[in-house]
Structure formats: C-alpha cells, structure tokens
C-alpha cells in the first residue's frame, strides 16, 4: 500500500522534481494567480458596490472574458510564431499595468463603472495572447512525455489559488477596501516576470514552428481538425454547453452573497475559496491519473449538473 501511495505521489509531482524551469514557473504562477483571484473578487465586489445590479456584474464578465471567447483561436495561431517566453513577459507586464491603474482609481475614489469595464476589456484582450502562450510554453519546459502531468499540475495550482486568493481578498476588502487587492495584484506579477527572466533557455525543449502559415488559415485548420476528430468534437461541444449555461459563477457568487445572503465581502471570499477547494481536489485527482478518460469526463459533468440542481433552490 505504501509503495503504491509513494508511486502515485511521485507521478503527481514528476514535472516539478525534474525540471528547473518549470519549478521557477510554478512558483511565480503561485504568487501571480493568487493575486489575480484577489483582483477578480475585488473587481466584482466593486461593481456590486457601485451599481447593486446583477446585470452590471454580468457585463463585467462579458468585458473580461468576451475578447478571448471571440478571438482566442487567432491568438493561438499567432502565439505559435513567437518567442513564447518573451511574449509571456510582455503579457504579464500588461496585466500589471491594468491592475496598477485599477488600484490608482480605487485609491483616489475616482473609479467609475465604465472605467472598470474598460480595464476588464483590456485585460481580456491581453488574455487572447497570454492564455495560448502559457499553454504552449508548458511543453517547452517539460517536454512531450510529461506534458499531461504538467497540465494537471497547472490546473491544481490554478485551483489552489482559487482558495487562497479569494479568501485573502475577501478579508482584505472587509478590512481595507478593494484598492489594496488591486495594488497587491499589481506587485504579484513581478514574481512570474522574475521567474521567466531567470529561466535557463538552454534547458527549454525545442518545438517546431510554421512561420509562413497564414493566421486565418491556421485557425481554420485547427477548427477543421477539431471537428473531424470525434472525441475532440464531442468534448468541445460538451464544454460549450456546460460553460455557456452552467459555469457562470463570476456573476452568481457576488449576487448570491449580496442579494440572497445579505452578506459582505468576507463571505463572498469564503464562498469563492470553497468553490476553489472542490476544483483543487478534482485537479489533484486528475494529476494522479495516468491518462484522461471519457468516463472521468462524463462523471465530472454529471456530478457538476447534480450539484447545480441541489444549489438552485437557494
């Protein structure tokens, strides 16, 4: 039994143990993503305080995630042509500027709804390039053989940050206000920028790039491949439905906290953190698996649907 547990543990953290560059990246992301979740909580709560409107919170989500939803595919084809480490340093710097601007507006009590929307849209536009670059850069840090493990660890880190960031963010908002969350998030980007600067370029795994491919053609080929591959098509359609209809927590949680529970930012932070805890457990289970399976995917989807039905009466 102990040998089995030890083998599972070793497999779960294999990428961290074997790759210096990935350890740097993982540490930097641990700081930065926690800061980002602090800002997400603070930004949503700021809109609630300014408008007391569920519609306004929904518009904030559209501004932040809409650009990537529309243009994310093109960002991926562009990312394949560029030096991904340098692009990441640029995108993280851009995120830092948006967070610092939000902090300045909030600290001086000049923040308006349209300014928050505008900065959220800028953040979303940067995400068009940052997300595919981060996903592609992972293979350069760990190689193809350990890519599934590194992806699962990235997911675990993301979801662990969903516990730490909102919990700390909710407490800070209750004590010092949203501006401090924005300021701390701005400083947090220095961690990942520093980690990227310290990486050993000689230890990165080379990847082939097709420099001459047209961006529109590359995006079209990606869509055709996804549609012609049955498993990928099914997973994408499934996630389209679930994400569009079910995964709306950016809007639900602040409204549930302020309207239904009549509570403040501390409770909002705790709700967001508990949501992240469940996601972290699922990510760690995924990291310990040898490979993904359709059975696991369907089990997760059904479990998510059941929990949504249980929560609905509230």
Structure description:
The protein has 314 residues and is mainly α. Helices cover 84% and strands 0% of the residues. The longest helix has 32 residues. The N and C termini lie far apart (43 Å). The N terminus is likely disordered.
Specify the biggest β-sheet. Answer: none
N-to-C span:
43 Å
Taken as a percent bin, the fraction of beta residues is under 5%
Instruction: Tell how many strands the DSSP assignment holds.
Output: 0
* Content-based structural category: mainly alpha
Shape: globular
Order of helices and strands: HHHHHHHHHHHHH
Helix amount: over 70%
Name the poorly predicted regions: 1-7
Radius of gyration: 20 Å
Give the number of helices.
13
**Average predicted local confidence, pLDDT:** 84
Compact description:
This protein is mostly helical. Helix content is 84%, strand content 0%. It has helices spanning 2-12, 14-18, 20-51, 54-79, 84-107, 113-142, 147-176, 178-198, 215-228, 230-245, 249-260, 265-288, 294-311.
């Amino acid at each position: 039994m102990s040998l089995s547990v030890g083998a599972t543990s070793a497999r779960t953290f294999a990428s961290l143990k074997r790759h210096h560059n990935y350890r740097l990246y993982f540490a930097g992301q641990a700081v930065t993503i926690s800061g980002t979740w602090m800002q997400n909580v603070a930004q949503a709560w700021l809109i609630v305080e300014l408008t007391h409107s569920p519609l306004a919170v929904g518009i904030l989500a559209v501004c932040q995630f809409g650009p990537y939803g529309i243009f994310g595919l093109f960002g991926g084809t562009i990312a394949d042509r560029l030096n991904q480490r340098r692009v990441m340093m640029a995108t993280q710097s851009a995120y830092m500027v948006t967070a610092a601007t939000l902090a300045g507006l909030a600290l001086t009590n000049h923040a308006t709804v349209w300014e928050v929307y505008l900065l959220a849209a800028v953040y979303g536009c940067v995400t068009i390039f940052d997300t595919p670059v981060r996903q592609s850069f992972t293979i350069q840090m760990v190689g193809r053989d350990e890519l599934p493990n590194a992806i699962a660890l990235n997911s675990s880190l993301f979801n662990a940050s969903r516990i730490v960031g909102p919990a700390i963010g909710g407490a800070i908002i209750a004590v010092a206000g949203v501006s401090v969350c924005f300021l701390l998030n701005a400083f947090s980007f220095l961690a990942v920028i520093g980690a990227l600067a310290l990486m050993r370029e000689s230890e990165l795994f080379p990847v082939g790039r097709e420099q001459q491919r047209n961006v529109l053609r590359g995006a079209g080929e990606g869509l055709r491949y996804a549609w012609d591959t049955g498993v990928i098509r099914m997973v994408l359609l499934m996630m389209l439905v679930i994400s569009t209809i079910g995964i709306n927590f950016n809007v639900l949680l602040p409204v549930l906290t302020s309207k239904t529970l009549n509570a403040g930012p501390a409770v909002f932070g705790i709700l967001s953190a508990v949501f992240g805890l469940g996601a972290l457990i699922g990510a760690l289970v995924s990291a310990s698996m040898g490979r993904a399976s359709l059975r696991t995917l369907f089990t997760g989807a059904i479990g998510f649907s059941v929990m949504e039905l249980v929560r609905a009466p509230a």
